Structures are given as C-alpha cells and as structure tokens.
Amino acid sequence: MITIVKPGLLTTIQDQGRWGYQANGMPVAGAMDRYAYRAANILAGNSAQAAAVEMTMLGATYQFAADAWIAICGADMQATLNGEKIANWSSLFVPAGSELAFGYAVQGCRTYLAIQGGIDVPEVLGSRSTYTRGRIGGLEGRALKAGDVIAVLNQTDGRRIPKTLPAKWIPQYGNEVPVRVLLGPQDNYFTETGIATFLGNPYVITDEADRMGYRLEGEKIEHSSKPDIVSDALCQGAIQVPGHGMPIVMMADRQTTGGYAKIGTVIGPDLGKLAQALPGSSVRFISCTDDEAVAAFREEQETYKQMTEWVAVRPSVSAKARQYTVIVNGISYDVSIEEVKK
Fold first, then answer.
1. Is there a single domain that holds both residue 126 and residue 164?
2. Do the domain assignments include residue 31?
3. Which residues pair with 3 in a beta bridge?
4. Which residues pair with 64 in a beta bridge?
5. Per-residue pLDDT reduced to its tens digit, 287-307
6. Same-domain check for residues 84 and 206
C-alpha cells in the first residue's frame, strides 16, 4: 500500500486509455505522454497496459508501506528517496517505510511513476485511466489527494537490476517544440495562404493548456469560407481552427466530436513533445507524408522493443560465482563474488 502524503498539482492514475467507446460519447483519457509512460513501465518490468501515476508540473510525495520496485520517467521533478536525490529515467528499489518525493518540474511538464505490478484500481470499460470531467476511472474518478491510499498488483519479478536509460532513448524537453502533422481532413476549408501561415509560423502555448486540449496563439490562419463543419469525430492530436483563426490541439481527455474544421493532426509519436511543453513554449508544425508518419510509428515501436531487451539483460557471471542482492541507501544491487587464484 502507498499513501499520498502530498498530492502535487494534478496527480492522476493513467494507463493506455479507454479505447473503443468514442462512438458512445466516452473520451479515451490515458497517459498524455505515451513514450515516457511506456518507458517507465518497461523499466519497472510491467506490461504495456499497466496503470501508472501521472504528475503534472508539481509532483507528489508518497509513503511506501512495503518494499517496491519502481521507475520514473518524463519531466525532471527533482525526485528524492528519503531525502537523497535519485536519477530520472531510472528504475530502483524502494524499501518499506521509505518516502519518495517529487518537486517542481525543472525540465518538461509531466512525470510518470510506474510501480512493478501496476496500480490496482477497478477497471472501467477496460481501463484504469482517470477521466476527471466524467469522474470515472482511477481513484473515484478524481485527482489524488493527501491521505489517499493506493494498492499495487502482485509484483512479477522480485529481483531486478537498477538501471538508467541510455541517453539515446531520453528525449530533451525545451521551449521550442517541432511537431509533425498530417494535413486534413478539412484542409480544404483553408486558403493556401492559411495553410502556409500554419506551417510557416511559430505558435505559442497559452495558459489554456490541459489534458483536454492545448490552445495556441500566433498568426491568424485564414479559412476559405466558414470555420464550422457538421460535427464529426475528434482523434488525439487533431488540430481544430475556430473562427478566430488560432489552432487548438486535441489531447488525451478531448471530447469525442467537434464542429470546427481541422487543418491537420499531430502524429502520435510527436504528441509526447506537446504533453511535455509548458505554457509559453513555441510550437512549429511540420508537414509530413503518410509514409513518414508510419515510419515514425515503426521507429517508436522498435525503440520500445529495444528498451525491453536492454532492461532484460543481466550481467553474465561464472557458474562458480556466488550471487547476492545488496541494498545500499535504499538502492538494490545484484552482486557476484568469485574466488580467483593467482
């Protein structure tokens, strides 16, 4: 059992999302940054669907009643274990009685805490994700608060090796965010000048940026006629442009339909960049082809595969070596000792 000592700014339980119910008006929810969420679960030894904790801008503080194996990925929230700083994009052992604390994000916006076994809350329509506007999923359909106690499912592997991801798999978060987009499905509702404006100018993330959508400001995007359409489905990453000409990017908690023309869609592998961007950051939209979007998706999936294989590798030791698990300052190490004759 894990007790929430301090809840942070917005801390919720999320998994891959509640897919398959948008036709019935149910939003998907799920992790805003699927890459950091997935990496944390891989480091923790969890399945791709395991529920984790998502923290926004200011992290939470947790008290662990039992030993646990955890991983943290995403924004750097200056995590500490019993007062000692711990590395981001890493896995580690947490002894019973320990306090895990997160502060303000110094780089990025959202951090994911994965605990081996996954967070144990009831599934709603096949998902444990929290959708706060509908008050479903997670813990009572709300953000976590001080005094909440969350349970963890059975651990799958009691002995692991603490690891930090290689730099090649760790994204860098900055104030300038390039994202690739597929134009359409209503790009014909915009003039050539409007599309050139959209692709040729930076847009700034406003304070109206949350799990539902990101409102941006910049050069006005020109419509060819009216901005309204007959309401149709909204996918994650869809970019609506209302009559005022400013783009709105749909995020995890988006509504299921919308009545504004959509000039394009941010491709899945780049949505995490937006999820980690703070208000005031500059966004540039880069047009890409279907083939380029598919290639980016395949590259992302290959990275997950390589991560999983890398995490599973243990140092090779001689059959004559004696092996021990040693805990130093709350961190577990696998140690092998072998007598060598000169």
1. yes
2. yes
3. 63, 149
4. 2
5. 999 999 999 999 999 999 999
6. no
